[in-house]
Amino acid sequence: MKITVVRRVVQVGMLALFCLPPLLAGWGLAGLFAGGDGEVATPAEGVFFGSLSSSSAAGVTLLDPLAALETMAASRSLLTAAALAGALLVAVVYGLVRGRAFCGWVCPVNLIGEGVDAMRRRVGIAVPERTVDRRAKIAVAAAVVATSALVGFPVFEAASPIGAVNKGLAFGGFAGAGTLAAIIIAELLVSRRVWCRALCPLGGVFQVLGRAGQVNVAIDHDACIHCDKCSEACPADPAILVPALAGEDDMVRAGDCMACGACVDACPASALRFRLGRSGRCHPHEYDRNCPFSPRGAAR
Question: How does pLDDT run across 106-127, given as a tens digit for each residue?
């Protein structure tokens, strides 16, 4: 089965997961009340409740790292022990897997962006591959935290397109809908995936965490036919594939990789695959036992 098919199921499933608590409590979606005049349960009383910014699962608080940093900056104080632990748990889990796996497998804005990207290609609208450096989103994340400290409230949470989809469907909180509309217009007319690639501050935080990720795309240089199908498919930024495709490395090492599997699915020669762990940087033709694609490494 194609990885992209599995990923779509996970993305839609995550949206449905956050919609379940209000529905199970007898409420409606988008903040609409579906019950009668009788007393109904509060969705927060269930095992799971919340949003992608902040949620509770079996009594465990989960908080996205950027929201945690914004909140601490805005309040000029530390979070409660439970909130700090929840933010660290999210950061560690995504950091160990692949920081931007959140973007590829969970974030609803990326799901919408990929749909818009496909629609733009289908109708023949041509836009530049990139107009802003992908590392700009790290600076955007730092600016968001600094601005939150200056104005006294979490600025990204007030305009987050992620919240416009996630909270909007579940609770009717559509703050950030304007940002989402601007992103869709930019995707169609300005530059391919410019928000997710270069501007999203949460993506910037996960990009930094992604440098330690253990789920990585590895390349078999002998199998690669250099057709560039993987570069055409990559939603993160084709530039992250360059060292591996050029034979300078045996894996995609950049923290921007979303572990989405689009490149793996697109490769007609099956030269790309997922691999657990991070090897030392190596050249495939070096006689190096630590390089899995060198003569000695392949013999192990």
Answer: 999 999 999 999 999 999 999 9
